[in-house]
Amino acid sequence: MSQPFASAHEELHFVNRTGWLRAAVLGANDGIVSVSSLIVGVAAADPSPAAILVAGAAGLAAGAMSMAAGEYVSVSSQSDTERADIAREKQALIDTPAAEEAELASIYESRGLSAATAALVARELTEKDALAAHVRDELGLSEVHAANPMQAALASGLTFTLAAALPLAAAVLAPSNAIIPTVVVSTLICLAGLGALGAHVGGAPKLPATARVLFWGAAAMAITAGVGWLFGISV
Description:
With 235 residues, the chain is mostly helical. The protein has one domain. 80% of the residues lie in helices and 0% in strands. The protein has seven helices and no strands. Helix 1 (18-45) packs antiparallel against helix 6 (179-202), helix 1 packs parallel to helix 7 and helix 2 (49-95) packs across helix 4 (115-137). The chain is elongated, with a radius of gyration of 25 Å.
């Protein structure tokens, strides 16, 4: 008795994580870099613990809200554009169905199918769900890549808050005469961990990701510290 067809194996893909992972890594990286740079800049200008604590706490609160709001607004704009394109495609299928099917066939032919096979695929997919075929193959949209404003805002805001708390805690716990080196070292360690973790979750090589976040984090702190020392004012 023949057995029903089944896939030989199920592959593990990481592309379905790109939406929230991008926002989470962006939020965490910005939280660590911006708050640690702010603390280092303020410490270079005014090393009093009170000034550093106020600056760090204000940077954490303002940054978390800014990241969440910015992600929500930008991803909402992307979502609006996607919905508008889908609406136009839906209307085009009503107005000119034959032309839309021919357009779908040309897309498949450009990807390597013969003209006859492309036309057959376009016809069968059109009969099953024409809009879904055009959204996927003409617009390049899918459920995996669809913009999700709330998901991006929550991921970015939450990870910013958690990550920004690390250099702030290091500054609070450090001796008053060693705030800058303590924050710098702890920040670089956190950035290295973030780069490696982000690469691991996304299934990407860890070394390039770690080196990338370390370089830009160190550059941000160095520039901000230089501004603090140069002007002697809170940055």
